[in-house]
Amino acid sequence: TQLLEQSPQFLSIQEGENLTVYCNSSSVFSSLQWYRQEPGEGPVLLVTVVTGGEVKKLKRLTFQFGDARKDSSLHITAAQPGDTGLYLCAETSGGGADGLTFGKGTHLIIQP
Amino acid sequence: DAGVIQSPRHEVTEMGQEVTLRCKPISGHNSLFWYRQTMMRGLELLIYFNNNVPIDDSGMPEDRFSAKMPNASFSTLKIQPSEPRDSAVYFCASSLQTTSGDEQFFGPGTRLTVL
After folding, report:
1. Phi-psi region of B84 (alpha: psi -120 to 50; beta: other; left: phi over 0)
2. What integer is the mean pLDDT of B85-92?
3. pLDDT of residue B82
4. How many helices (H) and strands (E) does chain A have?
5. How confident is the model at residue A24 (pLDDT cuts 50, 70, 90)?
6. Using CA atoms, how far apart are residues B48 and B69, in angstroms rounded to an integer?
7. Region B53-76: what's the mean pLDDT?
8. Distance, CA of B13 to CA of B11 (rounded, Å)
9. Closest Cα of chain B to A53: distance in Å?
10. Which of A46, B9, B29, B76 could lock B94 by a disulfide, CB 3.0 to 4.6 Å apart?
11. Average pLDDT value for chain A
12. Is the pLDDT of residue A31 over 90?
């Protein structure tokens, strides 16, 4: 079973600052998804990356997939309190309906 | 459109009791997943179904856990007997299996506390 390591585990910053969180594996990802989970709710998909070196943007969020497909990062520009949540990366086989393997996540708090 | 529906949202029970968690997937989805989330272990896959058939139950921790999907619109996860270490948030998710992607849609979860 692939082990996904996410860092940092906790991050608390002020509104307006930039931040980056990471997801790493010792094995190559088939494809990778990033989810955000808010308290009392289930995770919600943000993005799927498939190709090594791929970069995707979602408003102030930038997702990057490493060239070797063994790591990924999520960068948030000008963080806002609404970005607060648990950010999870998950490996997916892609194109199928297999279960996901999740990292333990980064707990992000954006203080006003 | 209604998302994935789970019931109950909260369950408090005593050790040794039977617990049944319920899930209604999004209409038209053909895959259903049960996950468990704890602070220590994070979000873990327990079992998943494709077209109502269990495909992989290797994540089910013990024989005390069982899951069924009698039809495309309903699934249950049962724990019998329950133990305090089963306390966690249990999520159900569903997806429409395609060749190009597999977004999973999660329900709000059932928070289980076993005393």
Report:
1. alpha
2. 98
3. 97
4. 0, 11
5. very high
6. 10
7. 94
8. 6
9. 19
10. B29
11. 92
12. no
Which residues contact residue A28 at a Cβ distance below 8 angstroms, ignoring those fewer than 6 apart?
A68, A69, A70
- Which residues in B lie closer than 8 A to residue A99 (C-beta atoms)? 33, 35, 45, 48, 56, 59
Q: How far apart are CA B115 and CA B110, in angstroms?
A: 16
Indicate the pLDDT class of residue B2, thresholds 50, 70 and 90. confident
In this complex, do A94 and B50 lie within 8 Å of one another by their Cβ atoms? no
Mean pLDDT taken over chain B? 93
How far A45 CA lies from chain B's nearest CA (Å)? 7
What the block records as the tokens of B7 is 């019931």
Q: Which of A60, A64, A105, A109 is nearest to A84 (CA)?
A: A109
